[in-house]
Amino acid sequence: MAAQAKGGRQATAAPTSPYAIELKGISKAFGPVQANKDINIQVPRGTIHGIIGENGAGKSTLMSILYGFYRADSGQILINGTPTAIPDSQSAIRAGIGMVFQHFKLVQNFTVLENVILGAEDGPMLNSSLTKARKVLADLSREYELDVNPDALIEDLSVGHQQRVEILKALYRQADILILDEPTGVLTPEEADHLFRILKGLKDQGKTIILITHKLREIMEATDHVSVMRRGTMVATVKTAESSPESLAELMVGRKVLLEVEKGPAKVGQTVLTVENLSVKDEHGVVRLKGVSFEIKAGEILGIAGVAGNGQSELLEALGGIARASGRIALNGTNLPLTGAKANGQTRRAAGISHVPEDRQALGLIMDFAAWENVAFGYHNAPEYQKNPLIMDNAAIWADTEKKMATYDVRPPIPSLPAKSFSGGNQQKIVVAREMERNPDLLLIGQPTRGVDIGAIEFIHKQIIALRDQGKAILLVSVELDEIMSLSDRIAVMFDGQLMGFRDPETTNERELGLMMAGMNGKAAT
Amino acid sequence: MTKLPTWADVVLVPLISLLLAAIVSAVVLLSIGQSPMEALSVMVEGSVGSAYAWGYTLYYATSFIFTGLAVTVAFHGSLFNIGGEGQAQLGGLGVALVCLALPWPHWTLALMAAMIGAAVFGAAWAAIPAWLQAKRGSHIVITTIMFNYIAAALLIYLLVNVLRPDGQMDPASARFPEGAKLPQFADIPLLQNLFAKYGPDGAVKLGKDGLAVYEQVPANVTFFIAVAACFAVWALMWRTRLGYEIRAFGKSEKAARYAGISPFKIIMVAMLISGALSGMMAINNVMGESERLLQNSAEGAGFIGIAVALMGRNHPAGVFLAAILFGILYQGGAELGLWTSIPIELRTVVQGLVILFTGALDQMVRMMLGVFFRPNRKGAA
Question: What is the pTM of this model?
Answer without folding.
Answer: 0.80
